[in-house]
Amino acid sequence: MGLQLYLDLLSQPCRAVYIFAKKNGIPFELRTVDLLKGQHYSDDFAQVNPLRKVPALKDGDFTLAESVAILLYLTRKYETPDHWYPQDLQARARVDEYLAWQHTALRTSCTRTMWQKMLFPVFLGQRVPPETLASTLAELDRCLQLLEDKFLKDQDFLSGPHISVADLVAITELMHPVSAGCDIFKNRPKLAAWRKRVEDAVGEDLFQEAHAVIMKAKDLPPADTAMKERLKPLAQLLLQ
What we know:
Blueprint: E1 3-7, H1 12-23, E2 29-32, H2 43-48, E3 56-59, E4 62-65, H3 67-77, H4 89-102, H5 106-123, H6 130-152, H7 165-179, H8 189-202, H9 204-215, H10 225-230, H11 232-238
Parallel strand pairs: 1-2
Antiparallel strand pairs: 1-3, 3-4
Helix pairs in contact: 1-3, 1-7, 1-9, 4-7, 5-6, 5-7
Protein backbone atom coordinates (compact mmCIF):
# COMPACT_ATOMS: atom_id res chain seq x y z
CA MET A 1 0.00 0.00 0.00
CA GLY A 2 1.33 3.44 -0.93
CA LEU A 3 1.51 6.69 0.97
CA GLN A 4 -1.73 7.81 2.63
CA LEU A 5 -2.27 11.29 4.05
CA TYR A 6 -5.10 11.79 6.53
CA LEU A 7 -6.16 15.41 6.20
CA ASP A 8 -8.93 17.94 6.66
CA LEU A 9 -8.17 21.08 4.67
CA LEU A 10 -10.06 23.09 7.27
CA SER A 11 -6.87 22.58 9.29
CA GLN A 12 -3.92 24.85 8.59
CA PRO A 13 -1.15 22.24 9.10
CA CYS A 14 -3.08 19.85 6.85
CA ARG A 15 -3.03 22.50 4.14
CA ALA A 16 0.73 22.88 4.49
CA VAL A 17 1.25 19.12 4.08
CA TYR A 18 -1.19 18.98 1.16
CA ILE A 19 0.49 21.86 -0.70
CA PHE A 20 3.94 20.42 -0.12
CA ALA A 21 3.03 16.96 -1.38
CA LYS A 22 1.18 18.27 -4.43
CA LYS A 23 3.84 20.84 -5.34
CA ASN A 24 6.57 18.19 -5.22
CA GLY A 25 4.64 15.60 -7.20
CA ILE A 26 4.55 13.15 -4.30
CA PRO A 27 1.99 10.42 -5.04
CA PHE A 28 -0.43 9.89 -2.17
CA GLU A 29 -3.94 8.77 -1.39
CA LEU A 30 -5.97 11.47 0.33
CA ARG A 31 -7.94 10.12 3.28
CA THR A 32 -10.26 12.93 4.37
CA VAL A 33 -10.97 13.14 8.10
CA ASP A 34 -13.87 15.51 8.83
CA LEU A 35 -12.94 17.30 12.03
CA LEU A 36 -16.28 18.99 12.56
CA LYS A 37 -18.00 15.60 12.38
CA GLY A 38 -15.57 14.21 14.93
CA GLN A 39 -14.14 11.58 12.59
CA HIS A 40 -10.72 11.97 14.22
CA TYR A 41 -12.22 10.40 17.35
CA SER A 42 -13.15 7.18 15.56
CA ASP A 43 -11.55 3.87 16.52
CA ASP A 44 -10.39 3.37 12.92
CA PHE A 45 -8.50 6.66 12.88
CA ALA A 46 -7.01 5.96 16.31
CA GLN A 47 -5.24 2.98 14.72
CA VAL A 48 -3.43 5.45 12.49
CA ASN A 49 -2.90 8.19 15.06
CA PRO A 50 -3.67 7.50 18.72
CA LEU A 51 -3.32 11.26 19.32
CA ARG A 52 -6.55 11.61 17.29
CA LYS A 53 -5.30 14.64 15.39
CA VAL A 54 -4.66 15.51 11.76
CA PRO A 55 -2.55 15.50 9.74
CA ALA A 56 -1.43 11.91 9.96
CA LEU A 57 0.63 9.82 7.57
CA LYS A 58 0.62 6.11 6.79
CA ASP A 59 3.37 4.72 4.61
CA GLY A 60 2.95 0.96 4.40
CA ASP A 61 3.07 -0.20 8.01
CA PHE A 62 4.69 3.04 9.19
CA THR A 63 2.51 5.75 10.72
CA LEU A 64 3.47 9.28 11.70
CA ALA A 65 1.75 12.17 13.47
CA GLU A 66 2.50 15.91 13.76
CA SER A 67 2.68 18.16 10.72
CA VAL A 68 6.32 19.23 11.07
CA ALA A 69 7.47 15.62 11.45
CA ILE A 70 5.41 14.69 8.38
CA LEU A 71 6.81 17.53 6.27
CA LEU A 72 10.39 16.64 7.16
CA TYR A 73 9.75 12.94 6.54
CA LEU A 74 8.50 13.78 3.06
CA THR A 75 11.50 16.00 2.29
CA ARG A 76 13.86 13.17 3.18
CA LYS A 77 12.02 10.21 1.68
CA TYR A 78 11.33 11.92 -1.65
CA GLU A 79 14.56 13.94 -1.73
CA THR A 80 12.72 17.14 -2.57
CA PRO A 81 14.66 20.21 -3.77
CA ASP A 82 17.09 21.48 -1.16
CA HIS A 83 15.41 24.85 -0.66
CA TRP A 84 12.46 23.24 1.12
CA TYR A 85 14.64 22.07 4.02
CA PRO A 86 18.22 23.18 3.30
CA GLN A 87 21.28 21.06 3.94
CA ASP A 88 23.25 24.17 4.89
CA LEU A 89 23.55 24.14 8.68
CA GLN A 90 22.54 27.73 9.38
CA ALA A 91 19.83 27.91 6.70
CA ARG A 92 18.26 24.73 8.13
CA ALA A 93 18.53 26.15 11.62
CA ARG A 94 16.49 29.19 10.52
CA VAL A 95 13.75 26.90 9.23
CA ASP A 96 13.86 24.90 12.47
CA GLU A 97 13.74 28.11 14.50
CA TYR A 98 10.52 29.25 12.85
CA LEU A 99 8.90 25.81 13.09
CA ALA A 100 9.70 25.67 16.80
CA TRP A 101 8.31 29.17 17.46
CA GLN A 102 5.07 29.06 15.52
CA HIS A 103 3.36 26.28 17.49
CA THR A 104 2.61 28.41 20.54
CA ALA A 105 2.60 31.82 18.87
CA LEU A 106 1.19 32.39 15.39
CA ARG A 107 -0.84 29.17 15.32
CA THR A 108 -2.58 29.95 18.58
CA SER A 109 -3.50 33.51 17.67
CA CYS A 110 -4.61 32.64 14.13
CA THR A 111 -6.78 29.75 15.33
CA ARG A 112 -8.41 31.80 18.07
CA THR A 113 -9.03 34.70 15.70
CA MET A 114 -10.84 32.53 13.17
CA TRP A 115 -12.98 30.82 15.79
CA GLN A 116 -13.82 33.94 17.77
CA LYS A 117 -14.52 36.13 14.75
CA MET A 118 -16.33 33.61 12.57
CA LEU A 119 -17.01 30.08 13.82
CA PHE A 120 -18.33 30.96 17.26
CA PRO A 121 -21.00 33.42 16.03
CA VAL A 122 -21.75 31.78 12.65
CA PHE A 123 -21.31 28.06 13.26
CA LEU A 124 -21.96 27.68 16.97
CA GLY A 125 -24.31 30.63 17.42
CA GLN A 126 -22.28 31.73 20.42
CA ARG A 127 -21.52 35.32 21.32
CA VAL A 128 -17.88 36.21 21.91
CA PRO A 129 -17.28 38.97 24.50
CA PRO A 130 -15.87 42.04 22.69
CA GLU A 131 -12.99 42.29 25.14
CA THR A 132 -12.03 38.67 24.43
CA LEU A 133 -11.93 39.25 20.67
CA ALA A 134 -10.03 42.52 21.13
CA SER A 135 -7.39 40.74 23.21
CA THR A 136 -7.07 37.98 20.61
CA LEU A 137 -6.68 40.47 17.75
CA ALA A 138 -4.04 42.36 19.72
CA GLU A 139 -2.09 39.15 20.24
CA LEU A 140 -2.41 38.35 16.53
CA ASP A 141 -1.03 41.77 15.67
CA ARG A 142 1.90 41.21 18.03
CA CYS A 143 2.68 37.86 16.40
CA LEU A 144 2.48 39.35 12.91
CA GLN A 145 4.96 42.02 13.93
CA LEU A 146 7.32 39.34 15.22
CA LEU A 147 6.88 37.39 11.99
CA GLU A 148 8.04 40.46 10.07
CA ASP A 149 10.77 41.71 12.39
CA LYS A 150 12.29 38.48 13.64
CA PHE A 151 11.78 36.01 10.80
CA LEU A 152 11.07 37.72 7.47
CA LYS A 153 13.22 40.84 7.97
CA ASP A 154 14.26 42.07 4.51
CA GLN A 155 14.43 38.62 2.95
CA ASP A 156 12.27 37.21 0.18
CA PHE A 157 11.26 34.24 2.34
CA LEU A 158 11.42 33.32 6.02
CA SER A 159 14.72 31.46 5.83
CA GLY A 160 16.41 33.37 3.02
CA PRO A 161 16.14 33.82 -0.75
CA HIS A 162 14.10 30.67 -1.45
CA ILE A 163 10.81 29.21 -0.24
CA SER A 164 10.99 26.56 2.48
CA VAL A 165 8.58 24.48 4.52
CA ALA A 166 8.59 27.35 7.04
CA ASP A 167 6.83 29.59 4.51
CA LEU A 168 4.16 26.96 3.83
CA VAL A 169 3.49 26.54 7.54
CA ALA A 170 3.28 30.31 7.99
CA ILE A 171 1.04 31.18 5.04
CA THR A 172 -1.47 28.44 5.80
CA GLU A 173 -1.73 29.78 9.36
CA LEU A 174 -2.38 33.33 8.13
CA MET A 175 -5.20 32.23 5.87
CA HIS A 176 -7.20 31.32 8.98
CA PRO A 177 -7.84 34.96 10.02
CA VAL A 178 -8.15 35.93 6.34
CA SER A 179 -11.02 33.45 5.99
CA ALA A 180 -12.74 35.20 8.92
CA GLY A 181 -12.58 38.57 7.17
CA CYS A 182 -9.42 39.95 8.77
CA ASP A 183 -7.40 41.94 6.23
CA ILE A 184 -4.13 41.27 8.01
CA PHE A 185 -2.03 42.28 5.00
CA LYS A 186 -3.65 45.70 4.44
CA ASN A 187 -1.21 47.77 6.47
CA ARG A 188 1.71 45.39 6.18
CA PRO A 189 3.23 45.83 2.70
CA LYS A 190 6.28 43.72 3.53
CA LEU A 191 4.08 40.81 4.61
CA ALA A 192 1.76 41.31 1.62
CA ALA A 193 4.70 41.13 -0.79
CA TRP A 194 5.92 37.96 0.94
CA ARG A 195 2.46 36.39 0.59
CA LYS A 196 2.52 37.12 -3.14
CA ARG A 197 5.93 35.51 -3.50
CA VAL A 198 4.78 32.40 -1.62
CA GLU A 199 1.63 32.10 -3.75
CA ASP A 200 3.68 32.52 -6.92
CA ALA A 201 6.19 29.88 -5.79
CA VAL A 202 3.41 27.42 -4.92
CA GLY A 203 1.25 28.25 -7.93
CA GLU A 204 -2.04 30.12 -7.76
CA ASP A 205 -4.21 27.13 -8.71
CA LEU A 206 -2.74 24.87 -6.02
CA PHE A 207 -2.89 27.65 -3.44
CA GLN A 208 -6.58 28.30 -4.15
CA GLU A 209 -7.35 24.56 -4.22
CA ALA A 210 -5.80 24.03 -0.81
CA HIS A 211 -7.69 26.97 0.73
CA ALA A 212 -11.09 26.46 -0.91
CA VAL A 213 -12.54 24.74 2.16
CA ILE A 214 -11.43 27.32 4.71
CA MET A 215 -12.47 30.25 2.53
CA LYS A 216 -16.01 28.81 2.44
CA ALA A 217 -16.16 28.13 6.18
CA LYS A 218 -18.26 31.27 6.71
CA ASP A 219 -21.03 29.51 4.76
CA LEU A 220 -21.18 26.46 7.03
CA PRO A 221 -24.70 25.61 8.22
CA PRO A 222 -25.25 26.07 11.97
CA ALA A 223 -24.02 23.21 14.11
CA ASP A 224 -26.61 20.85 15.56
CA THR A 225 -26.89 20.17 19.28
CA ALA A 226 -24.75 17.03 19.17
CA MET A 227 -21.96 18.81 17.35
CA LYS A 228 -22.07 21.75 19.74
CA GLU A 229 -21.73 19.34 22.64
CA ARG A 230 -18.80 17.58 20.97
CA LEU A 231 -17.04 20.90 20.35
CA LYS A 232 -17.65 22.27 23.84
CA PRO A 233 -14.18 21.43 25.25
CA LEU A 234 -12.51 23.06 22.24
CA ALA A 235 -14.80 26.08 22.49
CA GLN A 236 -13.93 26.59 26.14
CA LEU A 237 -10.22 26.42 25.31
CA LEU A 238 -10.48 28.92 22.46
CA LEU A 239 -12.32 31.47 24.60
CA GLN A 240 -9.66 31.58 27.31
